[in-house]
Automatic annotation (TrEMBL):
Identification of the protein by name: Eukaryotic translation initiation factor 3 subunit C
Similarity annotation: Belongs to the eIF-3 subunit C family.
PANTHER family: EUKARYOTIC TRANSLATION INITATION FACTOR 3, SUBUNIT 8 EIF3S8 -RELATED, EUKARYOTIC TRANSLATION INITIATION FACTOR 3 SUBUNIT C-RELATED
PROSITE patterns: PCI
An example Gene Ontology molecular-function term: RNA binding
Lineage, uppermost ranks: Eukaryota, Fungi, Dikarya, Ascomycota, Saccharomycotina
């Protein structure tokens, strides 16, 4: 009945607005298309008296009724023209087209529903003859849904529904599982047996009445089930009071309220807070571990769903989710011999019945405990990305990382305890990757602290088969843990997961001063050959690993290796982007046109995982200083040297700008300090060069600052000596090695070693005397500084004259045209 005509209708006393609201949209349209006479004629389907369906005939037949109020009088009062069909108390006996074959019969929603139920009864009867239990199961589910629709519309429980239940019960009783050879049919038979038993329990009295007197239920009239109303019916009522159900103490009310919550999930206008409150109250009245597990499996995802539209889950809700997950683990660990929550468990349509125990006597509940931990970690990561990293709030939030890591380790141990050996590696892949993700960027000392706290948070006697802890958490355990995690993940079929695990291991070794081993791992993995085809998060991790490998080489004063590794990455114009260290807002702006790519949170890292960009710049420029300044001196002295790749951040480019500028102030920025150190090295003033470098405050970010600066100063002395020899060899016939030793603060043996290397490497026409006291230069074809300037000036003059001649030629050509 359409609500548009609600004020023009004469309602019966049995109708109410609340019942009207229960009609679905499609059923409401069907019912509004039928007349009131058709509805009353079919009321024999219900337990309603004839007196209620009688129509008051008070001579008002000409009065417009229902939707006919807008028709003209001639259409309402016409003799036998079809218009009178729509008038109240109209006489249809003289209608000319009442017997027309083309006349459409409009059925009410009740009749259509009843016809569907009869069709289900016939299909089950046919399937029973062929032992087609797959069809019987499907049709039983269909009948259950039809019964739900009937109860939602206050039709009661049709007799045909009770008849189908009795029919399926008899078929199940008459069939033996041993007579069924097909596995699929046998599974369908077992499922049908459990399902019909459950449904029959809700309609026990109606079934008993039907079996005592089947003839009394021959007509498809509604019967009243004085048992508790079906759970499916309650799920459809909008007026169900969840709070009152949750405070009830009976088992049926617990599952009834839980079913309502489950059925309402995902629907528009769902009140998440009401659902959370209901489930919290259900936890208080839960009597068995099974009920507690079900309540938590539904409560935790609803907490996450309640903040799905927010940038991250509010901290109070996040902490509540963390506590719920911890309590769920407590329940699972207490009842681990009876219940297992597994992603591989079969689906249970009837939550009121506990799952059947398997061969080991374990009842498996469908669910994923680790997915809750994973979602909790993702929300934690989002909150860090949305918090100002320079505020105290970020530091307070970062303290919760240990709690997340504790749950990750706890989920790993639970999966180990509930998984068979054949599926252990596959089920542990995600949790091991998540555990790796929390420790690969930390130093050994920090990992030791984190691991110690995580193991202490577990129950006494907790052990791991994959990452066992024997004794105390120390450096050997930490490196062994990294190797074990990589070994487990390297066997996975997912190529991206294997490469990610490999990069995690390389990063950790490079960070903790294991350069040679990390370099060997990177070269042997061949990741660099296919990284351009990888997804964006994996490319970011690769870039971070390369940078960390370069910093590891610099810590060991391996200047050439560091310069070679960092040359391509550090010279990028978007260094912050390729390292995943841009802000979340910038990522969202840049990624708005690429909805199919990675999520914004995957393209940026929390601040505590960042690599300092100033440190990368200073390290690269320092390496460039130590390599390019001697190289430039050798080149300008006429020595044939190999070409070094030219980059925007190289010291050579900075020196060119410095020489062209008319004014040079004191050093202010980090680059200025390195530049002035280079100028001092060119003059042979190594002491001043080291002084400029030591004033760079960024060195304090290195864990072994004092050792690095000591090695760096020695390398500056050596390179300053080489630069001096290349620059001034044309002005000397011989150089005293003792004087060079005193001038550059090096031992005489070191000076001899450096000079010998220069002579052999650059093919300089010079030699050491027999007693190694002097470096003797043989005069060759070297030009003096004045001659060098003259040659340069001649080249510039020639270039200018060629340009002028070219302009004159172009001008004359235009005049001739």
């Amino acid at each position: 009945m359409s609500r548009f005509f609600a004020n023009s209708y004469d309602y019966e006393s049995g109708s109410s607005s609340s019942e009207e609201d229960l009609l679905s949209t499609s059923e409401e349209e069907l019912m509004s298309s039928s007349s009131s006479e058709e509805e009353q004629a079919n009321d024999s389907f219900f337990d309603e008296s004839e007196s209620e369906s009688d129509v008051d005939s008070d001579g008002s037949g000409d009065r417009p009724y229902g939707p006919d109020w807008f028709k003209k009088p001639e259409f309402r009062k016409g003799g036998s023209t079809g218009a009178n069909k729509f008038l109240k108390n109209a006489d249809y006996s003289n209608s000319e087209d009442s017997d027309d074959e083309g006349r459409k019969v409009v059925k009410s929603a009740k009749d259509k529903l009843l016809d569907e139920m009869r069709g289900v009864y016939d299909k089950i009867e046919d399937a029973e003859m062929t032992q087609d239990w797959i069809t019987i199961l499907a049709e039983l589910d269909n009948m259950t849904r039809l019964s739900t629709r009937a109860q939602q519309q206050n039709y009661g429980v049709p007799n045909i529904f009770v008849k189908v239940l009795a029919q399926v019960e008899d078929a199940v009783a008459a069939t033996s599982l041993q007579d069924i050879n097909n596995k699929a049919v046998a599974r369908a038979y077992n499922t049908t047996k459990q399902r019909v038993r459950k449904v029959a329990r809700d309609y026990e009295q109606a079934l008993s009445s039907f079996r005592e007197n089947p003839e009394a239920h021959a007509d498809d009239e509604a019967v009243q089930d004085n048992n508790s109303v079906s759970t499916f019916a309650l799920a459809g009522k909008k007026t169900a009071d969840l709070s009152s159900m949750a405070t009830a103490s009976s088992e049926s009310d617990f599952f009834t309220a839980l079913r309502i919550v489950i059925d309402s999930r995902g629907k528009k206008g769902t009140d998440f807070q009401a659902q959370i409150k209901t489930l919290e109250e259900l936890l208080d009245i839960a009597k068995s571990p099974y009920e507690t597990i079900l309540a938590y499996l539904n409560l935790i995802p609803i907490r996450f769903d309640s903040s799905a539209t927010l940038s991250y889950q509010p901290i109070d809700q996040w902490k509540a989710s963390q506590q719920d997950i911890a309590k769920l683990f407590d329940t699972l660990e207490d009842s681990i011999d009876a219940y297992h929550v597994s992603e591989l468990a079969p689906h249970n349509d009837f939550i009121e019945e506990e799952p059947q125990p398997n061969e080991q006597g374990i009842k498996q509940v469908l669910g994923s405990v680790y997915s809750f931990v994973e979602r909790l970690d993702e929300e934690f990561n989002k909150s860090l990305l949305n918090t100002d990293p320079h505020s105290s709030d970020f530091l307070d939030r970062l303290k919760d990382e240990q709690g997340v890591y504790n749950l990750i380790l706890r989920s790993q141990l639970y999966l180990e305890a509930t998984s068979s050996d054949s599926e252990l590696e596959r089920r542990l892949a995600r949790v091991l990757t998540r555990r790796f993700d929390h420790i690969y960027f930390k130093s050994v000392k920090l990992v030791e602290v984190s691991e110690s706290k995580a193991w202490k948070s577990l129950r006494e006697g907790a052990k791991s088969k994959v990452t066992p802890l024997d004794g105390e958490v120390d450096e050997s355990y930490t490196f062994g843990l990294i190797d074990t995690l990589h070994k487990m993940l390297s066997t996975q079929k997912d190529g991206a997961q294997r490469r990610r695990a490999g990069l995690y291991q390389i990063y950790f070794y490079a960070l903790n001063n294991q350069f040679e081993k990390a370099k060997h791992m990177l070269l042997s993995s061949h990741i660099q050959s296919s990284i351009n085809n990888a997804d964006a998060p994996l490319q970011i991790l690769f870039n971070r690993t390369v940078v960390q490998l370069g910093l590891a080489a610099f810590k060991l004063c391996l200047i050439d290796d560091c310069h070679q590794i960092l040359n391509e990455v550090s010279t990028s114009t978007h260094l912050r982007d390729i390292l995943g260290q841009q802000s979340l807002q910038r990522v969202a702006a840049n990624n708005a046109t690429n909805p199919g790519g990675a999520s914004n949170e995957q393209l940026c890292l929390p601040f505590h995982q960042h690599i300092n960009l100033d440190l990368i710049d200073v390290v690269f420029m320092t390496c460039s200083l130590l390599i390019e300044v001697p190289h430039m001196a050798a080149f300008f002295s006429g020595i044939k040297v190999k070409r070094i790749p030219y980059s925007q951040k190289s010291i050579r480019r900075a020196l060119e700008h410095y020489d062209k500028s008319s004014f040079q102030g004191p050093p202010e920025t980090l680059r200025d300090h390195v530049l002035y150190a280079a100028k001092s090295m060119q003059r042979g003033d190594w002491d001043k060069s080291v002084e400029y470098l030591k004033k760079v405050p960024t060195w304090s970010l290195l864990p072994n600052t004092a050792e690095v600066l000591t090695n760096l100063a020695h390398r500056v002395q050596v390179e300053a000596l080489r630069t001096y020899i290349f620059t001034y060899k044309r002005f000397y016939s011989k150089l005293s090695l003792l004087k060079l030793s005193q001038l550059f603060g090096l031992s005489q043996e070191t000076v001899v070693e450096v000079v010998s290397a220069i002579i052999s490497q650059y093919d300089i026409k010079g030699r050491l005397d027999e007693e190694s006291k002097f470096l003797v230069f043989e005069k060759g074809y070297e030009i003096t500084k004045l001659e060098e300037v003259a040659v340069k000036l001649a080249k510039e003059t020639k270039y200018v004259s060629e340009r002028l001649n070219e302009k004159k030629y172009v001008g004359s050509s235009r005049k001739q045209e």
